[in-house]
Amino acid sequence: MNAQDTQKFIEIASGVAEVIKSIKNERNYEKAAQILIEKDISISELVRRTLRLSIIDLAKLSDIVINLRKK
Predict the structure, then answer these.
(1) CA 23: distance to chain centroid?
(2) Is the pTM of this model over 0.85?
(3) CB–CB of 23/55 below 8 Å?
(4) Is residue 11 scored above 90 in pLDDT?
(5) Angle between the 3-24 and 55-70 helix axes, to the nearest 10 degrees?
(6) Containing structural domain, residue 52
(7) What does the H/E/C string look like for the chain?
(8) Residues whose CB is less than 8 angstroms from the CB of residue 15 and which lie 6 or more positions away in sequence, other chains included
């Protein structure tokens, strides 16, 4: 793993942590969706990196991401 890969890994990990915080602590799915879009993190990447979100959370988040990307 080179420095560029390490940096990308750290960015994704911090983005995932921000998304979880937005959903679990703030119940703010719009903010979480915006973080995913800005940091270019897919829902599948999010699922691979955490077990802290329920299927309902992921479904709500996915719907918002889709709607934001349509705009």
Answers:
(1) 10
(2) yes
(3) no
(4) yes
(5) 110
(6) 3-70
(7) CCHHHHHHHHHHHHHHHHHHHHHHCCCCHHHHHHHHHHCCCCHHHHHHHCCCCCHHHHHHHHHHHHHHHHC
(8) 35, 36, 39, 41
pLDDT tens digits for 13-68?
999 999 999 999 999 999 999 999 999 999 999 999 999 999 999 999 999 999 99
- For the chain, how many structural domains are there in total? 1
> In sequence order, which residues have a C-beta less than 8 Å from that of residue 46 and are 6 or more positions away?
16, 19, 36, 53, 58, 61
Q: Which residue has the tokens 């560029």?
A: 4
Q: Which amino acid is at 17?
A: A
Instruction: Look up residue 10 and give its two tokens.
Output: 């750290």
